[in-house]
Amino acid sequence: MVREYLEGDTASRYEQVFGVVGEDGNVTDTVLPAGTERASGNTFLYRGGTLSNRLRGSVPVPVTKEWKAASFQSFFENVMVELRLQSRPAGSDDEWQDTKYTDRIFGFFAENLAITHANSYPQYDGQGRELEYRWVEEAVWQNGSVDQDGQYVGGDKVPVTEENGSKIFTLTQNGRKIQYRSVSREVEDGGTVITNSIANTIDYAVEKRFEGGWDADNYKDSYTFTLFRSTSGSQAAAYLTFTMDGKTEGDVKFETYGVDEEEKNITVQRDGAWKVSIHGLPEFDTEGQQYEYMLLEKSGNLLSIQTKRDDEGNYASVITNGPGDTNLILVRKEWIDESDRHGVQQGDLQAANS
């Protein structure tokens, strides 16, 4: 029998492995009888045995979990996410494989919606190949609490599905069902940033009415409307234009402005004569601020625009036109609060002439 001693500046990068390293990285010590294990501290190589020198080491793999949800920033204190670490040989195009390592991130609150963990994991696999890592979101919990030992306990596990390469799940926040899309990206330091943004969409129903009923002498055959949108503290910008008429069939002509990839599913449909509904409008921007939509008629003698919103954020407007000249006064109430609606109450406005 013999004993090997590793020396030199790089000796600490290797470990002695007594036995044959299989394709799966498992080691079989061919000298010892089956079912027995090498005693601790026994570093002798026996006749017929195999000694392998395998690279070893660890590497930090940070992960940042962030919520882009300004409108619900006060509703994450009872939320916990569970992450799974995946690996593959560095620089390869192999499929990512789940490892045994997981992480749990919680403790979010309004002023801290991004948390980073940075732990170290094996730099090489069982065959000494260098690994690269990424984190993926595996589970989400809500309605739990943190005990006196600092652990997240209780709560309800939220179903997580996959859609177009993103994870999708729904939380109940401020009395509403809020859908989140989870997107991961690898960063230069070898870590992962997982961003959750709100994916809710809403509808906008529009009905056109005429004082005394429509007639060709006082009203046009069609009217064009522009839908504006804005967020807290920003200027409203034209977002969508459509034309409404008294027909009961046929497509509705519409045009969108500045629509990104996530918003290409917007549709405008005819619901009857002088009735149109818009579907798939994003309710929140990429930071989670709630959009405000405002509808204006491009031309016509407006008497009134009455707009209501339901509990799910959908809009419904009734636009009434009358014969003769009219004056329209637009009033907009704005909250400079990043759309954080917690505690906001409805107010009344009064108008007077003088």
Architecture overview:
The structure is a single chain. The chain is mainly beta. The protein folds into three domains: 11-34 and 42-56, no CATH class; 58-198, Immunoglobulin-like (Sandwich); 201-321, Sandwich (Immunoglobulin-like). The chain is built from no helices and 25 strands. The chain has strands at 2-3, 14-18, 20-21, 27-28, 44-45, 51-55, 58-68, 79-89, 97-106, 114-122, 131-146, 152-158, 161-163, 166-173, 176-186, 192-198, 201-210, 222-230, 237-245, 254-256, 267-272, 275-282, 292-297, 302-309, 315-321. The strands form seven sheets. Strands 10-7-16-15-14-13 form a six-stranded mixed sheet, with no helix packed on it. Strands 21-22-17-25-24 form a five-stranded mixed sheet, with no helix packed on it. A four-stranded antiparallel sheet has the order 9-8-11-12, with no helix packed on it. It is elongated, with a radius of gyration of 31 Å.
Task: Describe the structure in brief.
With 354 residues, the protein is mainly beta. The chain is 0% helix and 50% strand.
Structural class designation: mainly beta
Main sheet makeup: 6 strands, mixed
Across the major sheet, the strand order is 10-7-16-15-14-13
Q: Treating each run of at least 4 consecutive H or I residues as one helix, how many helices?
A: 0
- Whole-number count of domains: 3
Averaged pLDDT: 84
What are the segments in which pLDDT stays under 50 over at least 5 consecutive residues?
A: none
**Could you name the CATH topology of the largest domain?**
Immunoglobulin-like
The fraction of residues in strands falls at over 45%
Shape: elongated
